[in-house]
Automatic annotation (TrEMBL):
<keyword id="KW-0732">Signal</keyword>
<dbReference type="GO" id="GO:0004620">
    <property type="term" value="F:phospholipase activity"/>
</dbReference>
<protein>
    <submittedName>
        <fullName>Phospholipase</fullName>
    </submittedName>
</protein>
<dbReference type="Pfam" id="PF04916">
    <property type="entry name" value="Phospholip_B"/>
</dbReference>
<keyword id="KW-0325">Glycoprotein</keyword>
<keyword id="KW-0378">Hydrolase</keyword>
<keyword id="KW-0442">Lipid degradation</keyword>
<dbReference type="GO" id="GO:0005576">
    <property type="term" value="C:extracellular region"/>
</dbReference>
<keyword id="KW-0443">Lipid metabolism</keyword>
<dbReference type="InterPro" id="IPR007000">
    <property type="entry name" value="PLipase_B-like"/>
</dbReference>
<dbReference type="InterPro" id="IPR047794">
    <property type="entry name" value="C45_proenzyme-like"/>
</dbReference>
<dbReference type="GO" id="GO:0009395">
    <property type="term" value="P:phospholipid catabolic process"/>
</dbReference>
Amino acid sequence: MSELEAPSLEGAYRENSEGWIRLHIAGSPRQRGYQHGYLLANELRAALREIDYLLRIDTGIGFDWFARNAEALYMKVLPKAPDGFGEELLEELQGIVDGVNAATPDDPALTLADLLGWNGYPEMICQWYPAVMSGHITPNEPLPWDRHATHAGPLRAHHFHHSCSAFVATGDYTADGGPVAVHTTWQRFANGDAYNVLLHIRPESGHDMVMQSVPGYVYSSTDFSVTGGGLIVTETSLDVAGFEVDGLPEWLRTRRACQYGDSIESWCALFSDGNNGGYVNTWFLAEVNTGRIAAYELTLNHSALQPPLTSGYYAGCNIPLDETIRAQTGSGATAWSNLLGSAGRRIRWDQLMAAHRGNIDQDIARQMLGDHGDMYTGEDCASSRTICGHLDNDNGQYSAGQGPFYPWGSLDGKVATAGQAKALNFDARWGRACGAPLDVEAFLSRHPQYGQYRGHMQDRPSRGWIKARAV
């Protein structure tokens, strides 16, 4: 890596608004990383403390073990990334480390391994760790116990199949004929408290990006971005196994595609280059200048680009759109029609699209994202089966895997129209997409079985919508 330029916060910007942190960073990789780390130092340290606690609940292993394995894994492949992009992100990550340590000198020193483990967390917990537990991957640092003598149970017990709702629509479905995209992140509330960064990155090369992100991440992860390349990018995750240790991480491929992609096809080509199978999603892509939209799915061994449309929609609910991927991966083959799981949201999206065809704009899109139509019960009642997910409001009588009243669900809402994306902004609400509040102490008093999360979940009052924007 190059020597650190004189650390500078010039031009960097942080503002707190309605539960969000707006952050603007610019300059060389090391400079913008330093700005990021310095301005979000306390939030990043808090997020790492929380993920260590949650990993011990989920796996019985602390974050340090994952971080050391991430360092061994990624330091072998990042320097080999095309066009020096792996080195660029390593510079940015080291800048974050330096900024955090400069802002919090009395705390234990943050390391590059910490940041590699943190950025790699989604793919490591969803694909890498299950492959380790099944014996398909041998970690650089061995497990702290014999996996053969351990009953591991479901390897992704905390990662439910229903997690995030999204759509992209265009042409005859929208009020102005241009693309509209929406997304609400679903996650365990204790995990999701850190997902409140609205990040504007102005790199030295490539396109500006405005995205929802996380302290310390060099990509979105929650995956809602608008780019200077004229793209809107979002996704819903898929429960698909498979991991290639010699491939490039999903977090690098996503960032590279957003920074340099300027069409649906170029974004997909950049994203698929070096595929390691990590953190599998249905990606929803929109070209704001042409009005085209598409959906793209990439697993370790399969890929499918749904036909680009100038009129129509694609909607996501954690079931693969491609029949081959559904059948061959086992992720969603039966879920396609199971109203107890994600199929209810799939059907509800179709209903809402039919009802609002030709009228979808900013306001209608917000309403659709906060919808509580339950296709299993036939009622308008927030649950694990509704577009705006409320697992904490679901008694589990018709459970798709979670325990009753599990503290998981919609964390936010994001909406982007073509006009907004051209101006590098989008609407964002922190808290549930519908705006309903969460009082943590009241929730835990009603449901003491989740007492292990006391002190690890934050209240989510009802908040308004704000702009994520370029500075």
